[in-house]
Design brief:
Layout (H helix, E strand, L loop, with lengths): L3 H12 L3 H6 L1 H22 L35 E6 L9 E6 L5 E6 L4 H13 L1 H8 L2 H7 L24 H4 L4 E6 L10 H9 L3 H12 L3
Antiparallel strand pairs: 1-2, 2-3, 3-4
Helix pairs in contact: 3-8, 4-5, 4-9
Length: about 220
Amino acid sequence: MLSKEAIQFIEDLKANNNTEWMHANKKRYESFKKDYHSYIASILEEMKPLDKSLEPLEIKNCTFRINRDIRFSKDKSPYKTNIGVWFSTNKLKKNSPGYYIHFEKGSSFIAGGSWSPEVEELKKIRKEIAFFYDDLEKILNDADFKKEFKTLSRDENNVLKKAPKGYEPNHPAIEFLKLKSFTASQKIEDKLFSDSDFAKKIAKKLIVMKNFNHFLNRALETED
């Protein structure tokens, strides 16, 4: 669970997103980091027995820096005002599929899969979907997957308008082949993050994504 202090720190930072405030609240930030790491550890403890690919992960592999990359952003706020956690199914491979937890008041969610894979990775995933659509369909039609995530996420700003090169427009998986990211997500009520059984409850939801992540990893590990 997230401590009240950690949540309050993020809320106060949101209202005072500047370096002066952060420097004046350095001790609070150090306390927040300890809470953040404890929060991650509790979820890892629940997730590792459920997905052996997470065994190599340490807390440091699952954190995000609080500093924002503002080089190419119009928003020059220096700090993130959410609490994110990323569990990669392969810590040695960049952009490996995995599980994500996001706390932000009013906008909390969990997700998983592969977000914006590189060009070569994208080709491999599309190839896997095209050749083994039955496998993907079985995963997405699983009762638990449909209950938690319904289907894959679809952002119309991140989807091809036409069939990708090399694929027929009438392919049975064409709507999935048009995707540029392969993820699924579910909105989560903020109050759940303060539940004493949060780690156990959230692990139960996240692990539903395991077979989908396995499908994506299978695609990425296939040699052309």
